[in-house]
Amino acid sequence: MTHINKTYQVGDITVTRIDEMRLNTSAVSFLYPDSTQAEAEENAWWLTPADMDATNHNLVQSIHSWLVRTPHHTILIDTGAGNTKPRPRNPIFDNLNTPYLHRLAAAGVRPQDVDYVLHTHLHVDHVGWNTQWVDGRWQPTFPNARHVFSQAEEDYYGSPESHNEVNTPSFGVFEDSVAPIIAAGQAERIGNDGGTFLDNFEFHPTRGHSIGHMSIELSSRGQSALFTGDVMNHQLQVVYPHWNTVFCEWQDDARISRRRVLEQSAEQHLLLFTSHFAQTSAGYVSRLGDGFTWHYE
Ligand SMILES: [Zn+2]
Questions:
Q1: Where in 32-173 does DSSP place strands (E)?
Q2: How many Å apart are CA 187 and CA 222, to the nearest integer?
Q3: Cα–Cα distance for residue pair 86/93, rounded to 1 Å
Q4: Which pLDDT tens digit goes with each residue over 13-22?
Q5: In terms of pTM, does the model score above 0.90?
Q6: Cβ proximity of 194 and 236 under 8 Å
Q7: How far apart are CA 294 and CA 282, in angstroms?
Q8: 162: helix, coil or strand?
Q9: Which residues are registered as beta bridge partners of 147?
Q10: Residue 276 Cα, ligand 1 centroid: separation in angstroms?
């Protein structure tokens, strides 16, 4: 039986996580090269086994989409890593076979029902289900969807300029998961300054993890939430906002964007829908002394 996750209400809009996979493959020192052993040990006691694996002490992370249903549209935020994608440099995402589409169906959504796919950025674990291998080529999974992403991300990942050591995991991703969407005429771009989309969304530039990374604000009837993308990859970065992941491409910008998102989230009491936190992946940031603290919702 397929498990259906909790559904959140933001005004007259609902948000449900659609799971792809759960990882326990990254040690703190690997994912966060900025971390010290002392900082890692300081937190080992309060992180639950759902957040830090009790046997190998690796961080637990989720890969998923957020399904957003407005009174008018069915929308996905990001699309995981995808099935049967060749990722020889990245074994975690290589040639997967997950029941992601069955889980989407269990939530009542067929691929043809999806009206929009909004992307926080174009890394390997955020665009994978855009396409499937059908009849000898990569074809759009969601035939009626408009895919919305930052122009800067397309310009960069569509060019060999982006082929550097930090984004090795995303090699080949643009070609099999984004280019076919553009070729099918299903792409829409957001400018580098972000901006509003439909009635309920606003793209906020949060450059750093990637060149044109966007966090996406959702507002309805006076309530607001934020899809943070990879501004943070684990709740440890709420405690240590200066920690970048090993996959953050613009290090100084990533720290600035993270701090801004944390400050804004705490001040406005935004419900955050993260891309990779464990447990429910959703929750609130509050101020704690000079820093911040996280609680799941
Ligand atoms: Zn990611």
A1: 59-69, 74-77, 116-118, 131-134, 137-140, 146-150
A2: 30
A3: 8
A4: 999 999 999 9
A5: yes
A6: no
A7: 10
A8: helix
A9: 117, 187
A10: 7
What is the CA 255 to chain-centroid distance, rounded? Answer: 17
Q: Tell me the backbone φ, ψ of residue 122, rounded to 5 degrees.
A: -115, 35
| CB under 5 Å of ion ligand 1: residues | 125, 230
The rounded radius of gyration (Å) of the Cα atoms in the chain is 18
Predicted confidence (pLDDT) per residue in 96-116, tens digit:
999 999 999 999 999 999 999
The residue whose two tokens read 């309060």 is 46
In contact, 96 and 84? CB cutoff 8 Å: yes
- Tell me, in angstroms, the distance from the centre of ligand 1 to residue 196's CA: 23
Distance 54 CA to ligand 1 centre (A): 23
- In angstroms, rounded to a whole number, what is the distance separating the alpha carbons of residues 264 and 165? 32
Instruction: Give distance in angstroms: CA of 151 to centre of ligand 1.
Output: 18
Answer for the pair 271, 217: CB distance below 8 angstroms, yes or no: no
Output the CA 229–ligand 1 centroid distance in Å. Answer: 7
Our CA dihedral for 165, 169, 170, 175, rounded to 10 degrees, sits at 110
- The predicted-structure confidence for 163-202, as pLDDT tens digits, reads as follows 777 777 678 999 999 999 999 999 999 999 999 999 999 9
Question: Does residue 202 contact residue 194 with C-beta atoms inside 8 Å?
Answer: yes
How many degrees, rounded to 5, is the angle at CA 120 between CA 238 and CA 210? 75
Confidence of residue 252 (pLDDT cuts 50, 70, 90): very high
pLDDT of residue 181: 98
* Strand partners for 17: 66
Residue 1 pLDDT level (bands cut at 50, 70, 90):
very low
| Domains, the chain, with CATH or none | 7-216 (3.60.15.10)
